[in-house]
Fold this sequence. Notes:
Layout: H1 3-15, H2 19-47, H3 59-87, H4 90-97, H5 104-122, H6 124-137, H7 141-149, H8 151-170, H9 173-195, E1 202-204, E2 207-211, H10 213-225, E3 240-245, H11 246-262, H12 265-280, H13 284-316, H14 324-334, H15 336-358, H16 363-385, H17 391-399, H18 401-418, H19 424-444, H20 453-459
Antiparallel strand pairs: 1-2, 2-3
Helix pairs in contact: 3-11, 3-12, 3-13, 3-15, 4-9, 5-8, 5-14, 6-7, 6-8, 8-10, 12-13, 13-15, 15-19, 16-19, 18-19
Amino acid sequence: MSDTEDRSQGLAGDSVMTRDERTELGRLCAEVTELHAEVTELRTRQAGPLPLRRRIGWRGPVATVLIVIGCILAPVSVVAVWTANQVSDTGRYIANIEPLIHEPAVQNALTDKVTIAITSHLNVTGYVDQAAGLLSGRGLTRLGGLLTSFAPSIAGAVTGFIHSTVHKIVTGPRFAHAWVQVNTVAHQTLVGALSGRSSTVKVVNGQVTIDLAPFINIVKQDLASRGFALVDKLPPIHPTLALFSARDLVRAQSLYRLINDLKIALPILALVLIGLGVYIARQHRRALIGAGLGFAASMLVLGAALLIARTVYLNTVPNSVLPADAAAVIYDTFVRFIKDALRTLLVVGLVVAAAAFLVGPSVTAVRIRRGCGAGFTWIRTFGERRGVSTGSTGEWTYAHRHALRIAAVGLCALIFVFWGYPTAAVVILLVVLLLVVLALIELIARPPSAATPAETAGHI
């Protein structure tokens, strides 16, 4: 058979191709072209850096130092922002401190403190002895002696009654409401203590304490309403509840003053150093992976530091001053928001590192991208064979897919930045939504197909 006959048969075969076959053939041609460009880029990347290894440059070491310093400043920045948000913001502080009154350990500690404060001023035994003396003076010596012998039992019964009543008050809604009100006012006192301008938060026996007088007044009113008239004779009582060691207060004051000055500069400086290090590095993608992993590691270090600080704090508070379970609850409640922040930033660092890895030229990354692309292509082709096609919209999306990807990532980043107090769950949700948007872009994007058999043959 001559060449002329072969060519004419080939054209005849092309002329009987269906539209689906032409679409599939055009798609395959586009994929072959894109794959060829990707292979060429990979070869260029692999062959390009080899001559640079022979000379020692400054960019690598400088980039490494900048990224390391930025990662070191990251946890310090978290502490600075936490100090500003949790201590200087009254609403945030109340949201932090309010759950304490619902903790059984704290309720028990407050019950014991208030009960001891009241009973130590009541002197029930003295009142009983006074009554026994009056009876004996009126000739009722036997009755007076009997009352004197029962004085300890009467004092114990009164103490038990006061303790049970105080516990009911402490665990009730009225006390919880008072807790919020008192701490709203006391927040300014706490800021004053850290800044060294407070007169209400005092140091007693080496411990920083808060005044429980407002809560004593609530208990006195409740006891008086129950007919326990002895509380009306009580003088003003100002029991205290220990929060932390005075040595820690001095350190906290120094740290507060320093961090309060740097609470805005530190986060910006950390991000600028990390970004500058990634920009200076020769391998931007590898530097970004390292920065993301280093950032995540710095959050782990911060978490370990909080655990160490917890142990130190519990060891500085004697059990006689504050029970260990109550001290643990107070510390865990105070640092719960900073733990949320470090978990969030840990996830952010891992997400950035993973994203930088997946867009790279490694075999694993290429296989993952190729597998996802093949899956989207199969779904799109499956729909087109059944009459579901994105048409011109898909072709426009395919032509602008790079810009759409950048826009989706940028929008996700803006949402994260302007979110009030993002948590790790918020970061995961944003990442999932971003992946869904990117998947829709790949699914809708439709490579331009050949319109005629002649164009298809030209691509071949």
